[in-house]
Fold this sequence. Notes:
Layout (H helix, E strand, L loop, with lengths): L5 E5 L3 H13 L3 E5 L2 H11 L3 E4 L8 H8 L7 E5 L4 H9 L4 E4 L4 H16 L6 E4 L2 E4 L4 E4 L2 E3 L3 H12 L4 E3 H8 L8 H15 L9 E4 L3 E4 L2
Parallel strand pairs: 1-2, 1-3, 3-4, 4-5
Antiparallel strand pairs: 6-7, 7-8, 8-9, 10-12, 11-12
Helix pairs in contact: 2-3
Amino acid sequence: MDDKAIILVIDDELQIRRLLEITLSASGYRIIQSVNGKSGLVDAATYHPAMILLDLGLPDIDGHEILKKLREWYYKPVIVLSVRSSEEDIILALDNGANDYLTKPFRTGELLARIRAALRTADQKPDDQEMMFGSLMIDMVSHTVRKDNEILKFTATEFALLQLFAKNHGRVLTHQYILKEVWGYSYLEQTQYLRVFVAQLRKKIEDDPSKPQLLITESGIGYRFGE
């Protein structure tokens, strides 16, 4: 039985599909190709891929709608690959459940790194009692955080924010998504408020808060926790 991780590519552009076929096959993945949204939904249900690479500009159904339909039942990583580079499209895709977003043309090395990070995230269950990120250990049950075996002190809000990042390790979270999840809908425009708390977290968990390695800023979009 073929035990290679299956990646479903939903993209109508032949050159992109060929590039992904060559690149991903060489890295040990098995590729399934869909040329439009309808067939992509069928293939996702048929093959149960470990990940989906989704184009937004599909000929039959807009990729944003496909993403929403997928997220009704598909919980594994989805990375959007699109020529659309507007902040609005990126934020909408991430808020609709995309784990990551790369604009075309993309560097294959970067895509492979994003794929590996997303698959690692999927393998680490978000409800695990303990989650490890280098020298940082987060105990989800006791709400204890250790760095280099030293217990760090967090307020309830700081831990809720760190917990959200850890459970979505490797995924880009928009400002609005984070604010809604931690503080509620009335805080959706309080991005400065979020920046203050992110700065506080970095002081506690980063080796050098001015050069963060764990809590990464995605300019104009939000934050990513991890590589």
